Amino acid sequence: MVKKAVVTGATRGIGAAITRRLIEDGFEVIGIARHVPSSFPGEFHQCDLNDLENSRAVFSRIGLAHDVSILINNVGAVAVESVADITADALSYQWRVNVEAAVLAIQALLPSMRRQRFGRVINIASGALLGKIGRTGYAASKAALVGLTRTMAMELGPSEVTVNCIAPGQIGTELWAMNNDPDSPKTKAMVESIPLRRLGTPADVAGAVAFFASESASYVTGQTLFVCGGLTVGRSTL
Questions:
Q1: What is the Cα gyration radius of the chain?
Q2: Are 8 and 32 in contact (CB under 8 A)?
Q3: Structural domains of the chain sorted by starting position, each given as residue range(s) with its CATH number in brackets
Q4: How many whole angstroms separate alpha carbon 148 and alpha carbon 117?
Q5: Helix boundaries (H) for 98-227
Q6: What residues contact residue 137 under an 8 Å CB cut-off, 6+ apart?
Q7: Which of 222, 231, 107 is nearest to 169 (CA)?
Q8: Which residue in 126, 105, 123 sits closest to 162, CA to CA?
Q9: The predicted structure's pLDDT at residue 199
Q10: pLDDT tens digits for 145-155?
Q11: 219: confidence class by pLDDT, cuts 50, 70, 90
Q12: Average pLDDT of 113-136?
């Protein structure tokens, strides 16, 4: 039987690469994103995950209609503000999208995974969870995903549901290119600080997702994998 996967933020950047890789590996993908794409290689649901009521309804419909066994909580919200300037609204926004929406998705799809005695939950965090200037709310919410991953792995293990986390480093998405001038000295210095001396690609992250989603990862749970080209080596990790 073909396994079904739900991917949030499925239409751009890392999410689009994850969708392509899962389809290549034989999964059916159900995508969720705020913007409607011109085309999507599977079932698609438009949903702004900042709207928790609508998000709950969308996840519930998917859970009732499909035997989903793979969930990738990929969507992410970021506000660039220092701890001195960040607002309560910005903190709440990032928490809703990055954490609460992930919990709603898990709650809606978990019954299907338990029925199948097979499940893979993969949370996409960020290397920023180790600390990054100007990313107070983002780092805090992505770090929360690590704690969520570890706790869920303990609770859901008896149901044969694994829960893992991926923390990408500097990934060359369109959004990254918009915010980082490739010719600036600052950007060049940042790339040179990566041990592999290059940006990651969305496909690099998708490869890690493919492993965690596979049968080969059946004895791996509660882990956080930094896909960062070695950038986080030497830093204190959670």
A1: 17
A2: yes
A3: 4-172+202-227 (3.40.50.720)
A4: 21
A5: 101-116, 136-156, 174-179, 185-192, 202-213
A6: 79, 81, 86, 90, 91, 93, 94, 95
A7: 231
A8: 123
A9: 93
A10: 999 999 999 99
A11: very high
A12: 94
Torsion of CA 94, 99, 104, 106, to 10 degrees: 150
Please, which pLDDT band fits residue 236 given cuts at 50, 70 and 90?
low
Of 36-40, 179-183, 233-237, the least confident = 233-237
* Strands annotated E in 28-181: 28-33, 43-46, 68-73, 119-124, 161-168
Host H or E run for residue 6: strand 4-8
Known active-site residue 219: no
Dist. CA 30–CA 71, nearest whole Å: 10
Place of tokens 């990738």: 72
Q: With 80 as the cut, is the pLDDT of residue 78 above it?
A: yes
> Among residues 106, 103, 107, which one has the least CA distance to residue 121?
106
Which is the catalytic residue, given 27, 59, 118, 138? Answer: 138
| Residue 183, token pair as written in the block | 């010719």
